[in-house]
Design a protein that fits this description.
This protein is an alpha+beta fold. It is built from three helices and six strands. This is Nuclear transport factor 2 family protein.
């Protein structure tokens, strides 16, 4: 690894912020900001399957019904590969509803497995895989 301790701390902070912004933008329904968290060639594997690149991610987000959600991530573990690449994982809980008190809230839990890449515009997701937990 060609990075020093200060670089590792900076990379860890940037990637942890990326994870937090993902949750915030998903919950706020801010699709443009959410898409900007990904590299142009990123692969996002969700319950809908794999999506590659900004175009596929944007189409997926546009197809989803409006919901009220809160995503909570914890147990974030990051490993710096080199000055431009890192990998990590975090556990998540997602509470998803329609805003209608008579309809049940969907509860999901699992783990995100991520690859991060430094770009000219900062750190981005190069890949994110959602793995649901068997609850």
């Amino acid at each position: 690894m060609d990075v020093n301790g200060a670089d590792v701390l900076e990379i860890n902070q940037a990637c942890a912020r990326l994870v937090a912004l993902y949750c915030r933008y998903v919950d706020d329904g801010d699709h443009a900001a959410l898409i900007d968290l990904w590299t142009e060639d990123a692969v996002w594997t969700s319950i809908a399957g794999p999506m590659t690149g900004h175009g596929e991610i944007a189409r997926y987000l546009a197809s989803k019904p409006a919901t009220v959600s809160r995503h909570l991530c914890g147990n974030l573990l990051l490993d710096v590969i080199d000055s431009d690449n890192a990998v990590g994982s975090c556990d998540f809980i997602a509470l998803i509803g329609t805003g209608d008190p008579d309809r049940p809230v969907i509860q999901k839990a699992g783990r995100y497995e991520d690859r991060y890449r430094r770009t000219a515009n900062g750190w981005k997701f190069a890949a994110r895989v959602m793995r649901l937990a068997e609850l």
